[in-house]
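Sample entry (314 residues):
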Amino acid sequence: MEKLTGKKILVTGGAGFIGSHLVDDLIALKNRVVVVDNLSSGKKEYVHPKAVFYKIDVRDKKISGIFKKERPRVVFHFAAQPLVDEARKNPAETFEANIMGTVNILENCRKANNIESIVIISSDKAYGKSDTMPYTEETPLRGDHPYDASKSAADLIAMTYFKTYGLPVVITRFSNVYGPKDTNFSRIIPGVMEAIIKNKEFLIRSNGKMVREYTYVKDISNACVVLAQKTSKNKGQAFNFGSNNVFSVIETVKKVQDILGKKIPYKILNIAKNETPDQYLDWSKAKKKLAWQPKISFEKGVKETFAWHQSLLK
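Predicted structure, serialized as tokens:
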């Protein structure tokens, strides 16, 4: 499709952090959007008022009725248990949500037989640990802890539905995403924002040396739109989406401190378990094949994120 407009689109997890940004962008492009979300981590107030909303878990077999009623032509699958620590504490629930939830959506797409694009949201965590950085799309998927493995498995299963059934599947693998609407304060950037606004010490669970890549949520939403538009030429392919913002945890804290001009007292706890030391992506394939690249600087993204958190927390 040349442009993603005038389509009936289903977004699972559309009340969540990234999904709700995408829903806003899809509606701005004059699409009719259906949101499926169980609100376990998403918020109903994040859902655009013009979207049709169903409160339902993606594992629920009744979702087939939504596919039959709404007949979407494009599907974005965000819905997942999104937290590494929660996955460590409740692995079975994470595997159920992230793997079988994905299977249920793909099965409904297979039976619908009218889908133009299925965008499966994976993660850089699907790669697991690697001796070579940055990850390319050819890096093996070998997550070795519950969250990572759940993303590896769902990613591989999605590819199975392309190879076996010819479904128009494309896969995104994002770096760490930050921006407004992320209220998981165990994550670095939301946690830093909360510490500044509430004037409290920021607790770093790791040793502070772990390296991550940070991409602004609006750039990620745009990546999803571009990939859906270009699915027909890229079926069965995965794409990394990232930025040039590759920092250690302590570097991230100091950069936010400099951008906002606010002192951030922090304490290193060094209690993180099952974390990968370094994770960042080579996203040159997306730049070459999709003509995509991030547009929003870290400075602008941090300022917009801080303004949103100020309005939320004060």
